[in-house]
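Quarterly update, task 2.4: FE2/S2 (inorganic) cluster-bound model.
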Amino acid sequence: MVAITYIEHDGTRHTVEAEPNSNLMEGATLNMVPGVIGMCGGICSCATCHCYIPDAWQTRIPPPADGEKLMLEAVNQRRPNSRLGCQVLVTEALDGIEVELPADGNAG
Ligand code: FES
């Protein structure tokens, strides 16, 4: 299992154990982390899994594909480190990662 900490905008932290080869959206939704909805089920078409990946972890995650980049253009509160959680694969290399969540809670 891979330990992932999701941090809400108000600083509330949720540390969960995620299955390798799942994704960051699933790690949150399967553990009832507020603010991550995953409305489309992970097919990169809703952006309700928007999150921020801290710089220290960027090198451990492949860059976004074109479809993800397109969806990210439409999200609220986009930052340079914005990602769609459903497009970030959970690997052992991410053990201990801290994922920040946007202030709007991905309400859509
Ligand atoms: S769950 Fe819909 S884009 Fe990620």
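Highlight for this quarter: Residues 2-100 form a domain with the Ubiquitin-like (UB roll) fold (CATH 3.10.20.30).
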